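During data preparation, a discrete fold description was generated, and the record follows.
___
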Amino acid sequence: MLDSKKTNILLAMAGAAVLMAGSPALAQEAAPAAPAAEAAAAPAADAAAPAAEGAEAAATAEDPASLNESVGGGHGKLTPIGMFMIAHPVVKVVMLGLVLASIFTWTLLLIKLVEFGSLNKSTNRFLEAFRGARTVADMRRIAVSEDFEGNPLADMTAAATEELEVSRQAGLDIAGTHRGSTVARTETAVSAVQSTVAGRLSGGQQFLASVGSSGPFIGLFGTVYGIMNSFIGIAESNTTNLAVVAPGIAEALLATGIGLFAAIPAVIFYNYFSTKIAAYGTRADGFHAELMNSISRQLDKGA
């Protein structure tokens, strides 16, 4: 009995000694375990953050409405004004220049329509008055009248009658001996005035021709510049998502659209007024012949 009790006591003391010896080792193993867990958790958190940002960027790229709001000034969708506002400064300058050219083109249209309408009415009234003249003096009085000031046909008549008056004051026999030379000088004076008619009527035509010929190319320059910036943006963002690159390409193409909008009317107006100028030139040619016939008739009558 005593031996068994001693044995049990000895075993209990040995177990307690073992537990006391193992407790520091366990504590030392547990201490580094916590920092290791924290170190393992930190990379996981760092990896989770870019993943969340990537998911957010993907959601934005897949949502055209949210992208349009960010690039379109919060309008909810791309509009011409919104595309202009986000355009590169060079593209903006191109767009503004083309818009101004278009405004000047339409303004020029209105001015020349009024000019030609007034010119034709004035010419009709002048021809009616001219054909009622009975003498060279009557022709001159009508030609220098304030009612027909600036009219090309009136200026042609004034030049012809002025030459006749100068020859008469020089003591030449314009209805007899010097009739042939007088008629030749008169025709030269009329031709000199007539040669300026086309130049007087073609004001603004050079501007229309310039806009019509260069407008598309100026717009194309803006387009090329804008698309170049879009490709640079693609390279920097490492994405080819259409919702990301579409705004830049749209603003670039808008420059070409504005260029065509400026050029097409300019070409149409140029051709239209060229036809008007040619028609009036033909009318001036006819009046030239009519004027010289009238002067020759008056000289034959001894005027």
Summary: Residues 145 and 154 are 9 Å apart (CA to CA).
